[in-house]
Structures are given as C-alpha cells and as structure tokens.
Amino acid sequence: MIATIDENSGYCYGVVRAVEQADNYLEKHTSLYSLGSIVHNGTEVERLNSKGLKVISYDEMNNLSDATVLIRAHGEPPSTYQLAQKKNLHLIDCTCPVVLQLQKKIRTTFAEIQAQNGTLLIFGKIGHAEVNGLVGQTNGQAIVLENINDLHQWLIHSHERLCNPIAVFSQTTKDPIEYEALGKELRSELLRLTGQDQQVAIHNTICRQVSSRHPNLQKFAREHDVILFVSGKESSNGHILCELCKRINPRTYMIEKMQEIDPKWFQPEDTVGICGATSTPKWQLEQVFSYICSSEFDNLVKFK
Ligand code: SF4
After folding, report:
1. Which one from 60, 130, 160, 234 is the annotated catalytic residue?
2. Probe ligand 1: pick from 17, 96, 104, max atoms within 8 Å of CB?
3. Is there a contact between 235 and 41 (Cβ–Cβ < 8 Å)?
4. Within 13 A of 143's CA, how many CA atoms are on the CB side?
5. In the chain, which segments carry CATH 3.40.50.11270?
6. CA 102 to ligand 1 centroid distance, Å
7. What does the mean pLDDT of the chain come to?
8. pLDDT over 80 (residue 114)
9. Which of 80, 181, 259, 284 shows a CA-CA span of 20 to 30 A to 104?
C-alpha cells in the first residue's frame, strides 16, 4: 500500500494562531481556561488539557472572577465580553481576524437595513459558536438558515418583508456550492413572489482558507483508492469536507483516531490518501501515515 498526506490539509491560519497562543501561555503558566473547545479535535484538546488547558462553559465562566480565559478562533457575541468585564476576567482573544471582519460587516449592515425593516440572513449551523457570535452582532435578530428548506420556511412566513432589504452572509466554513445554490434559490423565489430581486445583497463570506480547499481536496480524493479523512466528529468543517471527498470517492472514511482504522477497508495494492479538516493538526495526519506505512498494519491488511 502507498500512503500520501494531502499537502493542503492541516490547521487553518485562525486555528494555528489560537493553539499557538494557548501553548505560549501554558509555557509560562500552569493553567488556562478556554471558553468552549479551542479546536473541534479531541486528540489536540487532550494534548492541551495535559498542559493545563481547562475547557469551560458559559455557566462556569459566570462563576469565575479575576481569571484568564481564552476566546477561541470562532469568536463570541458582545454578551461574552460584557460578562468578562463584569467578572473582571482577563481575555486572551484569539478570534480569527477573518471572523472579526465578518462580525463587523454584519454589525454595520444590520444597523443600515434595520431602519428599513430589513432582514439579515446567515447561512450556518444553528448553535455553532461562530454563528452565535455572528447572531450576537444583531442583538439576536438575524435569521439562521441551515439549508434550502429553512429558506423556504422563512419565505413562507415573511411575505410582508420580502420587498425590504435582505442581506445574506455565510458562516466562514460552509460549503461554497451550497451557499451559491441557496443564493440562487433566494433570488429566483423573490422574483417569483415579488417580481424583483434588487432588494437582496448576497455577501461572499466563506473563508478563502476553506473555499480553496474544496477543489484541491476533490482532486486529491480522485487520485487515491481510499481516503482517510482525519477530523474531530464535532467539526462542522470536517463533515463538509469529508462529504465532499465521499461524493468523489465512496471509499472515504472519517476517523478521529488511528485506532478506528479498520484493515477491512483496504486491499494490499491500494493507494491511500490522508487528509483532514481545518481543525486537524499536521502531526495527527503524520501519525496516521506512520501507522498505515508500518509493517504491522501491512500484515493486518494482507491477512485480514
Ligand atoms: S476557517 Fe478561516 S475564518 Fe475560520 S478560523 Fe480558519 S482562517 Fe479563520
């Protein structure tokens, strides 16, 4: 078997930055609180936990005072900063600059269209930390759409607002093809229902670090017999990218740890591509690579 690591996989810039800041802080201090999991990757979180990182919830943050809390790359709504101030907490704010920019754009756009009774739509996963941070920029008034069905539901219940301004944004890690389809559907439904679509502005806010991975990953999935997609099961970006590989190559398997690899997935002559999400560190891909290339694994495949 020949195995290859996808050179374009590994942490995105925002996650590298957050993990580096946590590592740097924990070199000099014995513990650090992280509001939510710093990265959707159990193995990496375990590594940081062993250095003193403690993942906390909002309720637990509410019970802290005079402590240091890390804000992860996904960002937070304004209410989190207000709580930190009230509790006298020191923040290490690792909100990704791309997310910060998006938050600002949503805030200013919402202020503009609110006066005209407009609507701000966000294509994203309900309850996802980044989405909560984005919705927070609109005092909770943005509408989150997870898919085209949600869009249709919103259209049915919003007849009286369809001629007012509509601004659409996407969570940074969504699938660009799905976002484009949602935008097209919105325009065509507005034309059908109101006779015009000039009132809608669709903003391209999918992170380039994510969208540029799509064509590269499709090519990579096509070039290998089996794809091992390494990702935390919680990672929304992981599920999107893994599905992308699966559509091209049905022999794609999502794994979080190398112990999950089943020798029955392989034939001795297979080429194996190893890739991952924006929250998968390179070292984890290398670990899977070493295991696949070991004679122990080779024997398991040959004599399965
Ligand atoms: S995917 Fe893009 S926006 Fe999101 S954390 Fe990574 S670099 Fe930042």
Report:
1. 130
2. 96
3. yes
4. 18
5. 13-96
6. 11
7. 94
8. yes
9. 181
Ligand 1 mean position to 194 CA, how many Å?
A: 36
Q: Domain 98-207 belongs to what architecture?
A: 3-Layer(aba) Sandwich (3.40)
Confidence of residue 186 (pLDDT cuts 50, 70, 90): very high
Residues 6+ apart with CB under 8 A from 174: 123, 124, 206, 210, 240
Nearest to 238 by CA among 10, 43, 23: 10
Tokens of 194: 């109101």
- One DSSP character per residue, 202-251 reads E---S-HHHHTHHHHHHHHHHH-SEEEEE--TT-HHHHHHHHHHHHH-SS
Where, residue-wise, is CATH 3.40.1010.20 in the chain?
Answer: 2-10+210-302, 98-207
pLDDT attached to residue 210? 87
Buried b / exposed e over 192-203, threshold 16 CB at 10 Å, is eeeeebebbebe
Q: What is the mean pLDDT of residues 72-80?
A: 97
Answer whether 56's CB lies under 8 Å from 32's CB. no
User: 21: which 2 tokens?
Assistant: 């800041």
20 has catalytic annotation: no
Which residue has a Cα nearest atom 8 of ligand 1?
Answer: 14
The second-level CATH assignment, the architecture, of 2-10+210-302 is 3-Layer(aba) Sandwich (3.40)
| Fold classified for 13-96 | Rossmann fold (3.40.50)
| 218-to-205, 234, 244, 278 alpha-carbon distances in Å | 21, 22, 7, 15
| In the predicted structure, residue 304 carries a pLDDT above the cut 80 | no
Q: What is the pLDDT of residues 31-52, one digit of tens each?
A: 999 999 998 888 889 999 999 9
